[in-house]
Amino acid sequence: MAGVFRVANEAWEALFRAQATLAREFEQAGAWGGFAPSEYGVLYALSGHDEGLRITELMDDVLLTQAGVSRLVARLEHRGLVERRSDPRDGRASRIVLTAEGRSVQARLGRAHARHVATAMTRTLTAAQLRALRDLSQALVEEPPAS
Questions:
Q1: How far is CA 129 from CA 12, 23, 93, 139, in A?
Q2: What gap in Å lies between CA 109 and CA 104, rounded to an integer?
Q3: Which residues are bridge partners to 87 per DSSP?
Q4: What does pTM read for this prediction?
Q5: What is the pLDDT of residues 65-76, one digit of tens each?
């Protein structure tokens, strides 16, 4: 058991360092077009939801606190990239939706970011390793099976 405990911690450290190193590389490359990576994260999260997302749903997607997401949304709203709409299922709530300009910005930044990610990830990993990394990473965030 002690060996598994050590390897689990080494795996976590390696995963954390890899993610932090790549995130720093992407940020330094300046491919965000004047946007913070977290702002792009909100645009990306919204791009897959034509009906928009509630703040609580965005929190789950971009992994920030409610206050953090609210501030990001306010900045993006001020820039004309997102808008709040009434939630048709709950009159007390609103949904955050990309504007046409927000969709355009997300698509442009997304293409540049996707190219940078592909370059960074294929520098040292094979296609088989990338598939394994994807599958392992997805397994880490899935709900564990009920016992």
A1: 17, 20, 43, 15
A2: 9
A3: 90
A4: 0.81
A5: 788 888 999 999
